[in-house]
Amino acid sequence: MIFEAGLAEEVKKFEELPEVVVTATRTEIPVEAAPASVNVVTKEKIEMKKPKTIDEALNDISGVMVRRGKGLMDTLAFITLRGIPEQKRTLLMLDGITLNNPYFGGVRLGGFFPEDLEKVEVVKGPFSSLWGGYAMGGVVQFITKMPEKREITIKTGYGSSFDRGEAMDDLRRVYLSYGDKIGKFSFFLSYGRHDTNGYVTDFATYNRWWDDGITIKAQYEFNEKTRLRLTYLRNRYEYNYDEPHPYLYNATTNQPVYYPSQKDYLPGPGGRIQNIWG
């Protein structure tokens, strides 16, 4: 009995802290007290889902529509809430920084990596009075991590289809991050990149593509309620349609046959660089 009593004294009691959100009221409150329908995707859930993109972390939440027609290569993916159409009616934020384009309301989701995320908060319903006109359908806020101790992450991978052209060929992925907390100062750095030779498009060309992203965050904690945080993100993507690979050839001249004309199959590159400060 003495042994059991001594063992019982050594048992530590852990109290689970309530999940808090900031998006619903702009202040930290428990999820149960939020004056709206709120969903929180925690870091543990994100790691369990293993999403390839940040929007894939939301694809099992009711009332959330995630559209991504070309997988990783889709530069026009969007997230909408409760069936309210168009991205300009759902506000997307990252660490309090608005991602919606100020001219047309769209969001370029390429170059963001789910390994950077601490959690995602989804608040459904009209919140324009709190967050502005883009929040007619609701708000989705991606909150990135700020380490409490030294953290180093290195990930890499390669994949391709068995039958060339049936999926994205030669997909390569790399992700690196480093973070630490020294006294009251914390910082986090990360870099990620995707590359692929693409797949054969309807125009009989290969759609090569790559994207990458850099995240730099620094924070100084003056006290429990006062912090100064600086964030910089740079996202890039580039695609390139190569020379067409026609299926039909003239039996007499052995020259490729284009329909309606060769100009409809001209190759060409495109891309974008996005810098975000906050």
Report on the architecture of this protein.
With 278 residues, the protein is mainly beta. The chain has 2 domains: 18-144, Ferric Hydroxamate Uptake Protein, Chain A, domain 1 (Beta Complex), CATH 2.170.130; 151-277. The protein has helices spanning 2-10, 43-49, 128-131, and strands spanning 20-21, 29-30, 37-42, 64-67, 78-81, 91-94, 97-98, 117-124, 138-144, 151-159, 171-182, 185-196, 207-221, 227-241, 268-277. The strands form 4 sheets. The chain has a 6-stranded antiparallel β-sheet, with no helix packed on it. Strand 11 and strand 12 (185-196) form a beta hairpin.
Layout of strands and helices, then pairs:
Elements: H1 2-10, E1 20-21, E2 29-30, E3 37-42, H2 43-49, E4 64-67, E5 78-81, E6 91-94, E7 97-98, E8 117-124, H3 128-131, E9 138-144, E10 151-159, E11 171-182, E12 185-196, E13 207-221, E14 227-241, E15 268-277
Parallel strand pairs: 6-9
Antiparallel strand pairs: 1-2, 3-8, 4-5, 6-7, 8-9, 10-11, 11-12, 12-13, 13-14, 14-15
Produce a short descriptive summary.
With 278 residues, the chain is mostly beta strands. It is built from three helices and 15 strands.
